[in-house]
Amino acid sequence: MLTHIDPRQLDKVWPVAAPLLAHAVAENLGESDLAQLRAQIAYGDVHLLVWEGEDRLGVAVVEFKQYPNFRSLHVMYAAGEDVGAALEELKPWADARGASKIECWCGDAQARLFKRSGFREAYKVMRVDV
């Protein structure tokens, strides 16, 4: 079951969510650290989702992006057990909040996981320091 965590309940959930998110955040390319991500969730800039089932527990941090032609749910981080099944649960959750697409930026290993849930490559993200 996929559950949106109200930021007012973050202190209760963070001891479980943080260890799961720590590995995913460690894999980023310097966008944020775990403390900064917690602050984004607490201030409501991004959303923390938790999924639980018989033998699974996982978390995701998502944000909405409004493009001129559609609204998309951007999966910033996802970690835990059975992420693929959770992505399927994420589709109706995103749809109920007005998103017509779900997107993520990820490395090759994560791309293989997302492809199993019907995602396809849309762009490659390029970056340079200035």
**Backbone shape:** globular
Task: Give helix % range.
Answer: 25-40%
Number of helices: 4
- What's the number of domains? 1
Strand percentage lies at 25-35%
Q: Tell me the CATH architecture.
A: 3-Layer(aba) Sandwich
Blueprint (SSEs and pairs):
Elements (H helix, E strand, L loop, with lengths): L1 E4 L4 H17 L7 H9 L4 E6 L4 E10 L4 E10 L2 H14 L4 E4 L3 H8 L15
Parallel strand pairs: 4-5
Antiparallel strand pairs: 1-2, 2-3, 3-4
Helix pairs in contact: 1-2
Task: Report on the architecture of this protein.
The protein starts with a strand and ends in a 15-residue tail after the last helix. It is globular, with a radius of gyration of 14 Å. The chain contains four helices and five strands; from the N terminus they run E-H-H-E-E-E-H-E-H. The longest helix is centred in the N-terminal third of the chain and has 17 residues. Helices cover 37% and strands 26% of the residues. It is α+β, with helices and mostly antiparallel strands. A hairpin with a 4-residue loop joins strand 2 and strand 3. It has a single domain, classed as 3-Layer(aba) Sandwich (Aminopeptidase). Helix 1 crosses helix 2.
